[in-house]
Amino acid sequence: MSPLEISASSIAPTARAWLTNTHEARVLHIFDRACNLINERREVLSVVTSQIGNGPFNLVIEDEILFFEHLNIESSTFIIDDQLTLGDLTVNTANAQLWCPRADWDMLHAQRNNILHQIMSLRANASGRSNLWHREEIASSVFGSASLHSDLLATTFPQLPFTNYQPLLSNLSSALASADISTAKAVASKLAGLGQGLTPAGDDFIIGALYAAWIIYPPHVARTLAEEIANTAAPLTTSLSAAWLRSAGRGEAGILWHELLDALISANPVSIQGVMEKILAVGETSGADALAGFTSLFIYWGEHRQNL
Predict the structure, then answer these.
(1) 3-state helix, strand, coil in the chain (%, to 5)
(2) What does pTM read for this prediction?
């Protein structure tokens, strides 16, 4: 195809810093609507279309293109001033609007009891198998009991014997629910990288749990928990998954999670259902795995408070 010049509509601070500080980069992954780049420090930048939208290390372009039509895994990359060139695609970043990936954790922490109530209500209604879920087993996975039944493990680790990993998922949620950072780090080091794909299921579960921890605990406690766990898990997994883990450690999340948190605050079941459907559609099981981590920690935390 002939060279194409397009403009970026928005950019995350981490993505802006990546463009400013990168001297060497290569193409890491190519998808229809996204392209991941990695630099000399193994930091990841995701160039995505508006269909995917804002994320903690995303550069969002205005045009709806198919990346594989413009570059391949061997394509050269150049960064000159406000232009990023990938194969025959040039992205102008000068007018990109800065997007903040950090949620308002202070406000969410103040609403943690209401959010727990919303999650417990959804859990109680899951037995009805509403159209919230794409697959029946995901309903059991995300809003199963706090003991994490085999349904959850079968969905999260379909290629592995679930009995080997149930204690890890349960122990991570339990440790985080009691702010036991040493145990949580030890468990996270065993979960990191477990599962298949570019973001293994164990990592996705950790990421969802970290989002919950940012809500459950005051900022100074949540920051310590999230950073320590992210820094423990990130070196043990893929480059892309490590980028997501480190972002969660900083309290950063993608646009769909921002929408979910807003929906939980609004206490509107229809809004919550709509956003969860979008998250569940992310990846093969990535969205479901992250939701499982998020809701599991809230359920464990709720039960932990009752037992104090």
Answers:
(1) 55, 15, 30
(2) 0.89
